[in-house]
Every structure is written in structure tokens, then in C-alpha cells.
């Protein structure tokens, strides 16, 4: 079997597996393998094929990491949606307690000492599984 065929089969397998993972890294490696296959088809030696695959994979990985760092992080936007929502107090004592929010009981703590639990409480922040509440 020709070297370019091996590279292109590897590229097809990597891209196929990428379709199930959704990370885009295997897509980059598949493109690198396809480029190495093109180099082999054009008559490049094994070292040139490996360098082509390695350089494209490394540059693609770096570009993908840079892109992923600069995109919005959905976990922060989900918590931001909770901020400003009103909760129902189930139990409250000394600035800590449990509140009902989204059909479940949550641990909660007061934003400040002056938080009055007899008035409606609003979510000001989320720290792990604890809601920080204020008036």
C-alpha cells in the first residue's frame, strides 16, 4: 500500500472519530495526516511527511487552544442567569440557611450582616453549591 493511502486512511479515521467527540483536536490531527498524505503523494520522503504532519498538528493544536481560551465559557453564563432571582426562605439563622430555588433546597448565606431575611432575598452570587443572598 502506498504511503499516501495510509496517511489518508488515518486522516479519515481521525475525522470520523472526531464526529463523535466534538473537541476539534482530532479534526486538527486528521488535517495534519491528510497534509502528510498530500506530501507523500507529491513524492516527499518519510521524514518530510512526518515533519509536515507534526508541524501542522502542533500549529493547529496551539491555534485551537488559543481559540478555546478566548471563547465564552458557558458555565459562567449559567451562574449569571441565577443572579438577581428571588428565592423563598425555608430556614434562616445568623446569616445562613436554606432556601428554595428552582424546585430544590439550596444552602445560602447572607451577602452582608445587614441582610434582612424577613424581606425578599435575591441571589447576588453563586459560590459552588451555596447561594449568596442580599436584599
Provide structural commentary.
The chain has 135 residues and is α+β, with helices and mostly antiparallel strands. It has two domains: 3-70, no CATH class; 77-134, Beta Barrel (OB fold (Dihydrolipoamide Acetyltransferase, E2P)). 52% of the residues lie in helices and 24% in strands. It contains four helices and five strands. The protein has a five-stranded mixed β-barrel with strand order 1-2-3-5-4. 16% of the residues are buried.
Quote the beta fraction: 15-25%
How far apart, in Å, are the first and last alpha carbons?
73 Å
SSE-based structural type: alpha+beta
Query: What is the share of helical residues?
Result: 40-55%
Spell the H/E element sequence: HHHHEEEEE
* Number of E-type strands: 5
Please mark out the parts with pLDDT under 50 across 5 or more consecutive residues, or reply none: none
Q: Reading side by side through the largest sheet, how are the strands ordered?
A: 1-2-3-5-4
The pLDDT mean sits at 90
The largest sheet, given as strand count, sense and whether it forms a barrel, is:
5 strands, mixed, barrel
* Shape assignment: rod-shaped
Tally of domains: 2
Radius of gyration: 27 Å
Number of helices: 4
Amino acid at each position: 500500500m502506498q504511503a499516501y493511502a495510509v496517511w489518508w486512511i488515518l486522516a479519515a479515521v481521525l475525522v470520523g472519530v472526531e464526529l463523535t467527540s466534538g473537541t476539534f483536536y482530532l479534526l486538527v490531527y486528521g488535517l495534519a495526516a491528510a497534509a502528510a498524505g498530500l506530501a507523500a503523494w507529491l513524492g516527499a520522503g518519510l521524514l518530510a511527511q512526518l515533519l509536515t504532519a507534526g508541524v501542522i498538528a502542533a500549529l493547529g493544536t496551539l491555534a485551537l487552544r488559543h481559540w478555546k481560551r478566548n471563547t465564552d465559557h458557558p458555565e459562567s453564563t449559567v451562574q449569571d442567569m441565577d443572579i438577581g432571582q428571588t428565592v423563598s426562605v425555608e430556614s434562616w439563622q445568623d446569616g445562613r440557611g436554606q432556601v428554595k430555588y428552582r424546585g430544590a433546597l439550596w444552602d445560602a448565606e447572607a451577602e452582608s450582616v445587614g441582610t434582612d431575611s424577613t424581606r425578599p432575598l435575591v441571589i447576588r452570587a453563586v459560590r459552588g453549591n451555596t447561594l449568596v443572598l442580599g436584599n
